[in-house]
Amino acid sequence: MAIYIGDKTTTAKVDRTCIEKYGISELVLMENAATSAFYRILEIEKEIYRNIKDRIRDTDFEDFDSSIFSGLPFKRIAILCGSGNNGGDGFVLARKLKAAGRKVDILFVGNQDKMSQSAQTNYDIIQRLGLGIKHYDNMADIESEIESLMTEIDKYDVLIDAIFGVGINRPVASKYRPLFEAVNSYRLKNETRIIGIDIPSGLDPDTGLPVSDRKNPGVAIRCDYTISFDYFKKGFLNYESEEYTGRVYVESLGCKKDILEEVGLRDRFISKKDLEFNSPKQCAHKGDFGRVCIFAGSKGFYGAARLATESAVGAGSGLVTLISDPDVQAVLAPNLVEAMTCNYGDQARLDRLTESANSIAIGPGMGMNQLCIDTLSYISSRTSRPIVVDADAINAFKEADLRLSGRYILTPHLGEFSRLIGLEVDLIKKDRLYYAKKYARENQLVLVLKGKNTIITDGTRTIVNTTGNEGMARGGMGDCLTGIIASLAAKYDPFEAACKGVYLHGLCGDLIYKDSFTVSPSDLIKIIPKVMKLMYN
To answer: In terms of pTM, does the model score above 0.85?
Structure first.
């Protein structure tokens, strides 16, 4: 099932549609949310057990330290509950964990007089069932309350945060701030794990940072895991959010499968349907697999041209030609046994290659100079086929004489994108999704904004990638991606080619990273055909 990405208004839209259109009550939604969280918590526990077993297997018996069992399993659980619906989720979750044999205490830090109706109903249920509820209502006497509360927390194996949900629209009140800071400080010093329900309390779902204003920098609970419901919060794409969310899981509310599309969500993570490859015909010849031209390289910068060209070959193009200056051609031609070469001086052949190409890539290793600008303008005038624009050609993109028509695929990293749109990297990081979609829409192109969770968008359709790892942070990796996308763009429309190419590139890196600390571009190129076969099957 596709995982969609939504903003802070999405939860209210989903709840309203479920209640008003489908007759699913708020109490049922709360029950479903807690049930999903319950099963996910059990899975988290199993994963921790597996890790513990691995540590035991690798531990010499004489040096065995029984303290590695501390906190496992999750027998003693504390749930921090507020008075809103997020607290209501916590009340239901407490009931389910108690029924599963866990010792559960509810540490209520909300205002009981302001409890939501559904939360109140579930609060009454757990009271009748005799679950332990400890009230910390008098937050005005903060020092004694915090000291008492932290003493309680020290008894538990896991702390579940169900204080505030996605509806928070102002900084955490000053009376709660010492509590949040104490919990965060405690987490650093102890083995107790913290699990956030739907979103870490105090975190803005749109920015992925604590809700703040001019007077208050904001504070949020820092979690080891976050169990989110129905959709991935847009703010979680902010790289800085991970220090608050930990590992994020998205669980279903048990509603209609396509309800997220019904309420207007379109942005989503990549899924199987985006990765289907066309079956080659048994009678196919090399021309059926695409003719690709790679404009790359300059004197002293040969590696980028080679990597992009060999990646295009590895990704299945029938005919690949590297087009470069004579110096690059002289150095690389003897080594590119599976690709052809051409230099800028052979104008007649250059024209024929450009006009017959099914796709073109430009930029790796070319340098930001007039030649790069002129070449990009030339390509644009000679073909209507997809053009992958990378590296130095991205810097030349604004200077070239181009006809924007949806055929360009730009592949910038954050620094290149910052220069392209004239905004600081730190500002873009806060909402990569917004800026990527805006630029793609306004310039009628496909944008591949590279990085963890690479964003692929044409301004209307937006896909977030799920493959790739830190071991791929190496020079030349972007050149490989350029060649892969160019190869696929010869057979698929630009958006499809970009989605498939980014996923394939990251998956190759992931398979190598399992056995190696770093991922080299050369090793990645070697396994492209094998990984494509895995994806095809």
So the answer is: yes
